[in-house]
Amino acid sequence: MELSLRVMAIEWQAEGILSLRLQAAGGAPLPGYSAGAHLDLHLAPGLVRSYSLIDGYPGDAPTAYRVAVALDARTRGGSRHVHEKLRVGEWVRASLPRNHFALVEDSPFTQLVAGGIGITPLMAMADRLQALGRAWRLRWCVRSEDQLPFRDWLQRHASHIDLHIDARDGGVWAGWSGLIDGLPVGAHIYACGPAPMLVAFEQATQALASSQVHLERFGAAPPPPQAGDAVFTVRLQRSGRTVTVAPEQTVLEALQAVGMDPPSSCLQGVCGACETRVLAGVPDHRDLVLSEQERARGDTMMICCSRAKTTEIVLDL
Ligand code: FES
Predict the structure, then answer these.
(1) 257: which residues sit within 8 A by CB, 6+ positions away?
(2) Rounded to whole angstroms, how far apart are CA atoms 73 and 80?
(3) Is the minimum distance from the CB of 223 to ligand 1 under 6 angstroms?
(4) Is the pLDDT of residue 39 over 60?
(5) Nearest by Cα to 146 from 70, 81, 52
(6) Mean pLDDT value of segment 155-169
(7) Which of 109, 169, 255, 295 could bridge to 184 as Cys pair (CB 3.0-4.6 Å)?
(8) Residue among 65, 124, 55, 61 nearest 94 (CA)
(9) Is the Cβ atom of 276 under 6 angstroms away from ligand 1?
(10) 108: pLDDT strictly greater than 70
(11) What is the pTM of this model?
């Protein structure tokens, strides 16, 4: 199912950062979502991008969705389209909200860590935790005051937030080695931001159980083919077709080559848009979306990057 949403407002938030308010026709109620969820927006033919939903306590039937888009110098077209072409009043197609970055709501303490525009899913989480009366803190690193968005929100939650501004505070934040010091037993920790920040985050949280550590990536490089990648066959249960995937090809590319068009967005294994049910065979997961438990179950895979360990895999397509 797809949504048709009208761009009701485009608001400047900071240097290079716009927020969009999106509504259905007549302001009709929209599907609810949980904190950490995102939408795929079909911005133009062939241009689908994922954006986190900002507002954290929208109830079962929100009447608007809000997302933010940072202009990325290395953009493949999505953020540039939003900043330069998208206008108030236009309609965009959107996926239903999906959540691969869900909040554990009953944790005794929640530490949030954001880099730049990576704040958006964490804003939703912070609002949700606040509404539930849970203990939380946010470490937020931005490059400069000019690039600091959502100042009203920041002010509202100022007593929970440790803000680091590189240009003001003497360079990038250097406190990673103490990130988890003093975290209560059973605390959960979440991060969203650029790749180098997430590398530091993963190192800093190695002592925690993997179930306590959650991260969402953006701007990751597409997973490269690996030496030894072999040809395999994909059997499509619903359409009755069989497609061969070459070593240098992704499943998605192989399906597109025979005229199919399954949903996809980031092509980097980070958004979850191409998630497809696996009915038989063993996936070779290459994505950054599924948890260890989900990988071990093997009943779903991201077809933009993951392959098969078996010579045949059967998909629910
Ligand atoms: S298209 Fe984003 S994970 Fe596959």
Answers:
(1) 243, 249
(2) 9
(3) no
(4) yes
(5) 70
(6) 97
(7) 109
(8) 65
(9) no
(10) yes
(11) 0.80
d(CA 85, CA 92): 13
Q: Is the pLDDT of residue 16 over 80?
A: yes
CATH of domain 110-217: 3.40.50.80
pLDDT beyond 80 at 26 = yes
Q: Any idea which fold 2-95 has?
A: Elongation Factor Tu (Ef-tu); domain 3 (2.40.30)
Q: Which atom of ligand 1 is nearest to the CA of 302?
A: 4
E strand segments, the chain: 2-14, 17-23, 38-44, 47-52, 65-70, 91-95, 110-115, 136-142, 161-165, 188-193, 213-217, 232-236, 241-245, 275-280, 283-284, 300-302, 307-308, 312-315
Residue 208 is encoded by which pair of tokens? 């925690």
Q: What does the longest C-alpha to C-alpha distance in the chain come to?
A: 60
Write the pLDDT tens digit of every residue in 52-84. Answer: 999 877 677 899 999 999 998 666 678 889 999
Q: Phi and psi dihedrals of 280, rounded to 5?
A: -160, 155
Position in ligand 1 atom list of the atom nearest CA 304: 4
Ligand 1 within 6 A of CB of 48: no
Ligand 1 contact, 269 CB (< 6 A): yes
b/e string for 96-108 if b means 16 or more Cβ within 10 A?
ebbbbbebeeebe
Region at 128 (left for phi over 0; alpha for psi -120 to 50; beta for the rest)? alpha
Nearest protein CA to atom 3 of ligand 1, as residue = 269
**pLDDT category of residue 1 using cuts at 50, 70 and 90:** confident
Q: What is the CATH number of domain 232-315?
A: 3.10.20.30
Domain ranges of the chain: 2-95, 110-217, 232-315
pLDDT for the residue 228: 84
